[in-house]
Structures
1.
Amino acid sequence: MKWDDSLYTGNSKIDNQHKELIKRIGQVLIACRERKGAEIVNETLDFLGDYVVEHFSDEEKLQKQYNYPDYKNHKKLHEKFVADFTELRNRFNSDGSTLTVITKLNRVLVQWLMKHIKVEDKKIAAHIKAQVQ
Ligand SMILES: [Fe+2]
């Protein structure tokens, strides 16, 4: 999982956090694929879990600050992600890095996030930009 320019929202704070997020998800996926010990995967998942919460909260603060009209819906999307992530965590804890867990990691983390950034987060950045101008 790599950063590419199609992910730029144009808001530097959001973009920098997204870059870090993508780097961390890449580390989780590599750790799983290489069948690294559960401890390492757990550590990366722990970090990712905390980082996601922090990032979402920063993004939500920004939306409030700029009266983003779709704030409620966006917050719901974040909550759904956190719930899916928690479920995945539990599954990893009980099953380890099985193929099902890795496939889910890909779907829940990678695909969801890419789409979310490209569609939803870009809308926030555009809204902020329009407000600032
Ligand atoms: Fe978001």
2.
Amino acid sequence: MHYVVMDLEWNQASSREAVHPDLVFEIIEIGAVKLDESGCVVDEFDALIRPTVYPELYFRVREVVHMSTKLLEREGRPFAEVIEEFFAWCGPDAVFCTWGSMDLTEFQRNILYFGIENPFPFPLFYYDVQKLYSLSYEDGKARSALETAVDRLGLFMGEPFHRAVSDAYYTGLVMGALPMKQLKPMLSVDYFRLPRTPEEEIHLVFDTYSKFVSRIYPSREEAMRDAELTSTVCYRCNEPAKRRVNWFSDNARHYYTLAWCPKHGWLKGKIRTKKNPDGSVFMVKTLKLVPQNTAVDVLVKHEELKSKRREKRLK
Ligand SMILES: [Zn+2]
């Protein structure tokens, strides 16, 4: 196993009228570094791509990435060719890592647009180094710029940011400075390609919680009728935990429940609704063993919502 830390640069339309709806961002550079299991950089990859959808570099992009249209015309190669080379370089047992989740999304959108078979494994697990950095140095929810993290950890090497390979290199350095042994379970799941059938649905068990990614549904109401999605099986013993309250929603997107496993105690359930651009949805369920006071909080919330609804009805 080795890590592939990657970073992309992309170009976009120079006016709103010129935006291609299926490809808002066109990749112009792929940069990556390979890290061994101990977090040391052992190899690097850098390739320029000649854009075909937006052949002129947008002036803002030009300023940020320090490139010219001429350079891409001269040294850029076709996307398909670079992709093949990149994945050959990655090897079959690469664990992908990026700063944030956007690069993997846009990468796959470009792959789809250019009619190439998606070379990433499915489901695609990856390390979001921005999130891991936040878990280690911030509150776990904040999302800092790569520059901020590099600065704070004293990793600046004099290389400018916003060239794919140097950003990949810096991301790799940040990763090398994180307690990866501890962070190993904190894999993210890529949501660009979603399960289409029950067999493809994603079941994950981590040390302190379990996660389930459903297939696509026309609506969240329809999704909530699915027994697999609403099941509350304890991830420690694989036995069904009995729900104390039915799944209830406090807003348009989240559902909660509380269940009891006789062996392991309270299990808090949460289902998040995720919207797709076409209006369909998929659901992400997490189940977590929680202490008594957290369990009580769920019941209190449920009661509050119930009485609010009752009040509304009476008015
Ligand atoms: Zn249990």
3.
Amino acid sequence: MSRDTLVSLFCELVQIDSLSKHEAAFASVIKDKLAGLCLDTTDDGAGPYIGGDCGNLICRIPATADGFPVIMLNTHIDTVGDDTGIQPIVEDDEIHSASNTILGADAKAGITLILAALQALHDQDLPHGELVVVFTVAEEIELVGAQHLDYEMLQPLPQMAYVLDGGVTPGQMTTQAPYADKISFEVRGKAAHAGVEPEAGINAIQIAARAISEMKLGRLDEESTANIGTIRGGSATNIVPEVTTFNGEARSHQEEKLARQTRHMRQKVEEAAADAGAEAEITTERSYNGFALGPDDAVVQRGIAAAQQVGLQPSLHKGGGGSDANIFNEHGIPSVIIATGAHKPHTPEELLRIPSMLKCYEWLIAIITLQQ
Ligand SMILES: [Zn+2]
């Protein structure tokens, strides 16, 4: 597929809004494009369970030759935040947004690459094994699309998956990702008039402040992080605040370290509340489990061999975030994230490097067609 065709497909896709839980219009464009390749797409019905207008899309492409693994290709079809009306501008070797919005290369660069690869298989009659293409919804809102994916529909499970939701450097694979917990805190003190009888009150904001200031936060070590991200409390300056709620998260590539950090954050709040005679209610929830794949895993091996075949320097990368790959690995599909040429996602500076995208396209074709 030529540079111009890839660029114009990408520009077409980013101009169609696809906010999380509002992916239906965009999904129907994808379905039409696949139908143009004589491929049927099934909606797995996850939409109503996640409050969205559309479920995850699943499309099976039968093998045309023997001796290939069953490969799943995935990326998400929603874009982050609430930017709509995205207008791409092509300038030399880069595509960026015309205004102060994201570009949507996360993950429409990945969608472009998958659609273009399927087109090439179709047009050029390339030999390949069975492919399972899964376009997930609502990835940007805590991976809920992948969490509610109908995994029965993927049976027998694909032997490996490539998630096209990675970075800018062709050949780069994210083979490790952290475990994550989210933690919600509510501190309940006692309201009182701040001027008339402050001694009758218990200041929930002050308790929260003490607890948070005593927490280890930020980058804890090279594989663990923690954050308090929101806080809300009090109602007026003349009232000793009764309630303060705050929310945080912790991540680590080591599950034991995550457990230790989560316990530490809880303890600081429990201690500060107990010392002041207040109550603390704390809920912890696992956001996703981590994964760690290495050069011995078939999915990584194939990615490396395919990169080398097209003259790329393969590199394995440890990710700091969660993606649908975490959920697929949890469900027993060995999955890595591969680069697409997208840069600075989730910001108005987001851009797509066209030469990188072209190289990632060659890489993807090699991943699909490689005979080992
Ligand atoms: Zn993404």
